[in-house]
Each structure stands twice: as structure tokens, then as C-alpha cells.
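Figure S7 source data.
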Amino acid sequence: MSSPHQPRSTGDDYERTTYGDLWAPYYDKVTAPADEATIDFLFSLAGSPPRALELAIGTGRLAIPLVERGVAVTGVDVSGEMVGILRAKSGGEDIQVVMGDMAEVDLNATFPLVYLAFNTLFALLDQERQVACFKSTARHLESGGRFVLDCFVPDLTRYDSYNTRMAVSSIISNQSHAYEMSIHDPVSQKVVSHQVRRLEDGETVVLPVTIRYAWPAEMDLMAGLAGLELEERFGWYDRRPFTESSHQHVSVYRKP
Ligand SMILES: C[S@@+](CC[C@H](N)C(=O)[O-])C[C@H]1O[C@@H](n2cnc3c(N)ncnc32)[C@H](O)[C@@H]1O
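C-alpha cells for the predicted S-adenosylmethionine complex:
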């Protein structure tokens, strides 16, 4: 079945030019810093001596606080602009970052912890690429190692099916006002959005976001295809329970 909206998903530089490079100058301005609970949670799974692989490391929002705790973090990202900002930060110069696609990369190394934060699994725009990412993760985990990812739970009440709805929201953080216009395709589970953001300094920017969302149950199936088992699921990194009214989840998969 053809879908009315088909953002490109493979074989080109979609992620680099949208989720990555175009966002890079604004990302830290509109994103809240990592909370302590997140860093504690990831640190607790990083082993001894602590080591971790961050898929889609971006500007180092999580990696730098983990490095400050003594974790040897390796990163993967597809955007030179995002990694350039990481490199310019104190503590970011020495992080080993491999430029590449998290769904395909092979570092020929294993880690006790691989993590993928901030809904970024959804930047892979079809199910096949998301399954490939779970498989790539499994290749990079030691036996007994954990894959941690956090994602929002889709809320379809935000959209009219196949139609355009302008959602006015204070998304992600209170550091900027954002208006989001989205087109939703429930068949391919894709949402094509543009966010109009007014930054603290008064500048207004328009930023694209295209995602392919997945429900927690689908992710568990994808993990199973990659040989990973769901170990725990929380409502956030502070280990609050995941319930039917949770808006997001932190899922921990284990490699047997
Ligand atoms: C929402 S940011 C998350 C950055 C960081 N993990 C954080 O929590 O702040 C998304 C990042 O994913 C990267 N990205 C998108 N698609 C990717 C892919 N296929 N492989 C590797 N990185 C990708 C972008 O370049 C960007 O740095």
C-alpha cells in the first residue's frame, strides 16, 4: 500500500541533513541538560571499569557527564555538525566518535552498555532500519550487557489521521516556545513535522523532524529478532513505574 507521505529513509543522508546538521546550532539551546537520575542510571550499568557505547551521541548531552564520572564513552553519529559541537566542549575533545550510521556500524568491539537516548531510535525511518539498529547493538554488547533506550509512547490523539494538525506545545523543554506542525501517517507510523521555535535570544527558527514511531511492544519484538531480552521497563530513569498512563519509557534489554 502506498503512503501519502514518504520521507526518504535509506541510502541517502536524510538523518545527517535533518535530525543532525540542521539542528546542530540550536540543539543545546532547546534541549534541557541531562538530569542526575539519567546519568546515575546509565552509570550503574556501565560495568567496571565503566565503559559504554552511545549511539547517536550528538553534542554530548549525556556522554560528557558520564565521562566526568569516569566512564570511557565511545560514540557513533552521522552528523559532523553535531559532533563538532561535542568536540568544542570541555571533556568532548577526547571522546572517541565514529562517524557512521548506527543501524549499520561495526566497531569490532563490545561493551557492557550500549544506550540510545531521546527517542532517537525513531530517527530511523522504517521498521527494517530499526530492526537493523537492534542487531547492530547486539553485535556491540558483551554477553550479559545491556541496551538502554528511552522513547516516548505514541499519543495518536495529537493527530487527525492522514491530515495536518497544528499542535501548539511547549515541547521538550521550557527554554524555548515551540509550535509544531505535523503530518501523520498511521500506516507507516511516520510523522513529518516542522517545529517553529522562538529562542531565548528572540531568534525564530524552523526545524524539521521526521520520525517513524514504534510502540514498546514492537520494540520488544525487534529486540527479540536481535537476540535481546527485555529485562526492565521504567517510566523514566528515576525508575518510576511504567504504567498505562506513562508518556515515555526507559527500556533495558539484556544480551544473554
Ligand atoms: C535527538 S539527537 C540526540 C543526541 C544525544 N544522544 C542526546 O541525547 O542529546 C539525535 C542525534 O542522532 C543523530 N542521528 C540521526 N540518525 C542517525 C543515524 N542513523 N546514525 C547515527 N546517528 C544518527 C543525529 O545526528 C543527532 O546527533
